[in-house]
Write a structure and sequence with these properties.
It contains 9 helices and 21 strands. The protein is an alpha+beta fold. It folds into 2 domains: 226 residues, P-loop containing nucleotide triphosphate hydrolases (Rossmann fold), CATH 3.40.50; 179 residues, Distorted Sandwich (Coagulation Factor XIII, Chain A, domain 1), CATH 2.70.50. The strands form 4 sheets. Strands 10, 12, 14, 15, 16, 18, 19 and 20 form an 8-stranded mixed beta sheet that branches. A hairpin with an 8-residue loop joins strand 18 and strand 19. The chain is elongated and about 90 Å long. 32% of the residues are buried.
Length: 420
């Protein structure tokens, strides 16, 4: 092992047996032998990496890619099929917070039990006891049984024990959302102090913002292999782009399936391809939408965006009855039905839209400042001054903001309307 390294992982492989329908009893296994069939699922396919002493790294990737399996191998909760792991120093893991806590014991008693699991002697625990209690902010409740704690209090106590072990290597798996906002910030500050003191840190997290705040490098694990490694922001941009593309392809596939359903039901005209399977359409159709798209900054049709990215909505129409004027309005709803934004051509430009036989209206958002989530688009075209709508489509399609918490977003949208 290199003297400057705290962790060396070499060609790590790990597989699991996944049973299709495993019998629970000996009788079931003997009678229904076919129920014991299984497949071998290869979770890690030979990953290798090194972590220097005092360095913090992040492991990122989609669910099931092998991040948590890697961390469990580092903690020796499970063992690899092949490959090697070399670690130098005392290891503390924040994977299963509160493992070893007894509900009928007090918080103070559980501190001794839990810290002993991490390898501390009674003398070492005595020296750290006041710091652990003070950090948890549970002085008033520390001698109460843990079963009387709320889930937040329980996690805070467990985190406080694990963070005060003074280990050389700290392994963290998706547990930084502990307690309220103030306590979370306190945890981040403590982790930064631990890092400055020279502790080596490995974090598994879906929150890229957390990784960027703490880590020096990131490893993107994809289908059991390391796909990229390096500066967190660069690696995360590549990861988000790939996830964005994957989601876009899934949505396009869903669009094609929806269009096929509309054709089978004879609704191809009323529900064109841009409409979702939950779309509702009505109106006189004297003027009607011929296409509605969401585009990115270079004009590509998209349905998934990062928070803060430029977005353009394009409303194309056809006017076979030569209607002279109309107004176009659109609305954005969260997937829980809450209206978050609404605007119309007349309000934005101070004039009504003079219609052609065919045309389009674009609405450009230089910064689409919404938080991670899914938003439904509604669109309506109606006569100036009111009256029966020409064309109204509710739930045209979903727009997904794929931010991974890197930008929380704001509910103030600057936009520009233009007629083409």
């Amino acid at each position: 092992m290199k003297p400057e390294n705290a962790i060396e992982v070499r060609d790590l492989k790990k597989s699991f047996k996944v049973y299709f329908d495993k019998g629970n009893s000996l009788k079931e296994k003997a009678i229904h032998k076919k129920r014991n069939r299984y497949e071998i699922r290869e979770v890690l396919k030979g990953i290798s990496f090194e972590v220097k002493k005092g360095e913090a790294i992040g492991l990122i990737g989609h669910n099931g890619c092998g991040k948590s399996t890697t961390l469990k191998l580092l903690t020796k909760i499970i063992y690899p099929d092949s490959g090697s792991i070399d670690m130098c120093g005392r290891v503390s893991s924040l994977i299963e917070l509160g493992a070893g806590f007894h509900p009928d014991m007090s918080g103070r008693e559980n501190i001794y039990t839990n810290a002993a699991i991490f390898g501390l002697s009674k003398k070492e625990i005595d020296e750290r006891l006041d710091d652990i209690i003070r950090f948890s902010e549970l002085e008033e409740y520390i001698d109460n049984p843990v079963r009387t704690y709320s889930s937040g209090m329980y996690m805070r106590l467990a985190f406080s024990v694990a963070i005060n072990v003074n280990a050389e290597i700290l392994l963290i798996d998706e547990i930084l959302a502990v307690g309220d906002v103030n306590f979370q910030e306190k945890c981040f500050d403590k982790l930064k102090d631990i890092k400055r003191a020279g502790t080596t840190i490995v974090i598994v997290s879906h929150s890229l913002d957390q990784v960027e705040r703490i880590c020096d490098r990131s490893y993107w694990i994809d289908e059991g292999e390391i796909r990229a490694e390096g500066d967190p922001i660069s690696v995360h941009e590549a990861y988000l782009t790939a996830m964005n593309q994957s989601m876009q392809e899934r949505l396009e596939k869903e669009d094609a399936e929806v269009m096929e359903q509309h054709k089978k039901l004879g609704q191809a005209r009323l529900m064109p391809v841009f409409c979702s399977d939950i779309a509702e359409r009505k109106g006189t159709f004297d003027v009607e939408f011929s296409d509605i798209k969401a585009l990115n900054s270079i004009g590509e049709k998209k349905r998934t965006f990062h928070s803060g990215e430029a977005v353009r909505l394009r409303f194309a129409y056809k006017n076979p009855n030569h209607v002279p004027q109309a107004n176009i309005k659109f609305s954005l709803y969260r997937d829980d039905g809450i209206l978050v934004y609404e605007n119309n051509y007349e309000f934005a430009t101070g004039k009504v839209l003079d219609l052609k036989d065919e045309g389009e209206v674009n609405v450009e958002f230089p910064t689409f400042g919404y938080a991670k989530g899914t938003y439904l688009l509604n669109a309506v075209m109606y006569p100036p001054g009111g009256g029966e709508v020409f064309d109204e489509i509710n739930n045209v399609f979903k727009i997904t903001v794929f931010s991974e918490e890197r930008a929380m977003g704001v509910y103030l949208l600057e936009n520009h309307w233009e007629e083409a």
